Amino acid sequence: MMYFWAFVVGGLICVIGQLMLDGMKLTPAHTTSTLVVIGAVLDGLGLYEPLIDFAGAGATVPITSFGNALVHGAMAEAEKNGLIGVVTGIFEVTSAGISSAIIFGFLAALVFKPKG
Description:
The chain is an all-alpha fold. The chain is about 85% helix and about 0% strand. It is globular, with a radius of gyration of 16 Å. It comes from Desmospora profundinema.
């Protein structure tokens, strides 16, 4: 049943993103940013962690989980280190994902040639 709910929740998040692209005529950058902010707001309200507990990868794989990670890391570090923890927590939690994206993007650029 866990796989079913992961599929449904992840699919719904993707449907929301696609509707934003098609129906609201937003650019991909605006849609991505909006979904990150939605994830951040839901985590700030304490609603994203229960969604992760319910849907598993269906809630952690989409871009909304990046917003969740930003707020979650900032709040955890703020409790330990005060105001400076807000800034350091954001980078501490997301640095592995961002670093991986940069490294694999670079490696892909070395292997593949763009069509232009």
